Amino acid sequence: MALRVEIDNLQKATEKLIKRLFTEGVVDAIADVLDENVIGFSPSGHYYSRGSWEVKRFLQGEYERLAPCNISKIRSRQFVREGQLSIESHVIMTSLQQRKLLLLNITTMYRMVPDGFMINGVNMALDYDRERTYKVLTERAVSDLDFLASYDGATGLLNREAFCSRAADMMTDYPDKSFDILRINIERFKVINEVFGEQQGDKLLNYIAGFLKSIDLELCLSARLYADNFVMCFEAVEGEAERLIYTMQIVANSFEISHHTVLTFGLYHVDDKSIPVKTMIERANMALNQAKGNHVTPYFVYDNKMRDQMLLEQQIVNEFDAALEHGGFKLFLQPKYDLETEQIMGSEALVRWIKADGSYVLPSLFIPVLEKNGSVYAVDRFIWEETCKCLRRWIDAGKNVKPVSVNVSRIDLYDPELVNVLVGLTAKYKIPKYLLELEITESAYTDDPRMIMGVTEKLQSEGFLILMDDFGSGYSSLNMLKDIHIDILKLDMEFLRSTDQTGRGGNILSAMVQMARSLNIHTIAEGVETRDQANFLKSIGCNWVQGYFFSQPITVEEFEKLI
């Protein structure tokens, strides 16, 4: 099909084709007017392609290499050389993918056919002559340079640097007004990219960005910080933040994808305009981190407690390596007792962090921090090896050695070398594997049940016993027992703390013990604090207990006196 235009309109028609190619990727529109023997020259000039199919593929490749593109201006002229009608176009364009401003010279050659014109040659060349480029640049092209410096290429929102600068200016220009900083995050965005593809992920980013651009507030800025993280600064009007959060949740849920898109938010009420905007963003991020994974409320508001918590966490991270290297971490043991004989039948290995001044860092403080940054594996491995050393020493001393259970965190379970490490430690110290029991929390199984089941089955095949810790604290306990082979259930004593033994909690605990017995699974209850609790557990058939009523965690030396 020929290009049905008059000679006077050929220049405009050519510019239209160029725009459609580089901004929309519409190659078919050009393919329809390519001569069968058309020749295409590459921008580098190193090769050429011949034939309509080859040139079409060449043009498609150029679009994909540069897209998305923003064309600032096209300047064209029409000329005839050696009987060949040609349109020479200077295209000033921004390649958002390459983050470059380009001057692309395109010469489109035509031959006349009975009903119009066909393209029989396309020659592209990138102009690398800086002086010539600046002569051709228009004011719009210069503004494109500013665009690249100030805006995120993928979404068209402000970037971090421009947001910080403009937000600071806005707060300075309106000293009598209050402002909020709102951080926005797409939960499990990595999963969306992996399952549905990065193209779908990019569409979601632009979907959210499109809404942020549409917000019609007098004083409001929006930016994409990185990946799936956005930020807003707006005037703090009562109820405005909640309205925006609510609306954005609806927007996210309306995105057409077979995945429940969840947004989480962190809000910082600016109470000190003198601090850098990047610090304000960090404070909003602290609140955002509190909201991640929280299914009760989608947002948290920053307060000074969060700052204190952040400083404490940073202190823990800073002191961790030195403490581990210089003996700051110690192995403690909490005895486990047989309810029938009230004799020690084993123990649980626990870690304690003792500082140089003799003070303790509570496990409830440092364990979550180390889990967050991945360092908990080093602590776990330290405890595993210290436990193996103790078991070896007790065996050599001829003591009546009972099993010691060690904790295996969910981070450990994702280590492909976990089985080899544990097998290696028992081999190194010549420990029977049944003496080193492995405690895995119930919640760990909910992340990736198939993978965790595979790991536990390998460990059991090697001879290790598996304990499910905190059984009953999750929402899928019974379903997991159907699929996962567990040797020992460790019961969550919250059932007894919230009610007396004759209440619903006691009935549930009794049912758990009976169910475990029918499955040939032993039970142990931790956190036993009173004689009444111990007697009740014995009456329902629970096998073993541990807790402060019998013994708190003690040093290895103190434990050795008991065995």
Structure in words:
- The protein is an alpha/beta fold and 563 residues long.
- The chain has 22 helices and 21 strands.
- Helix 7 (189-196) crosses helix 8 (198-214).
- The longest helix has 22 residues, at 304-325.
Provide tags for this entry.
563 residues; Nuclear Transport Factor 2, Chain: A; Alpha-Beta Plaits; TIM Barrel; 3 domains; 6-stranded mixed β-sheet; 22 helices
Give the arrangement of secondary structure elements.
Layout: H1 7-24, H2 27-31, E1 34-41, E2 48-50, H3 52-66, E3 69-81, E4 84-95, E5 100-113, E6 116-126, H4 130-136, H5 139-150, H6 160-173, E7 179-186, H7 189-196, H8 198-214, E8 220-226, E9 229-235, H9 240-253, E10 263-269, H10 277-291, E11 299-301, H11 304-325, E12 329-338, E13 344-354, E14 360-361, H12 363-373, H13 376-396, E15 404-407, H14 410-413, H15 418-428, E16 436-441, H16 444-447, H17 449-462, E17 466-471, H18 477-483, E18 488-491, H19 494-497, H20 504-518, E19 522-525, H21 531-539, E20 544-545, E21 554-555, H22 556-560
Parallel strand pairs: 1-6, 10-11, 13-15, 15-16, 16-17, 17-18, 18-19, 19-20
Antiparallel strand pairs: 1-2, 3-4, 4-5, 5-6, 7-9, 7-10, 8-9, 12-13, 12-20, 12-21, 13-14
Helix pairs in contact: 7-8
Please provide a brief summary of the model:
The protein is α/β, with parallel strands linked by helices and 563 residues long.
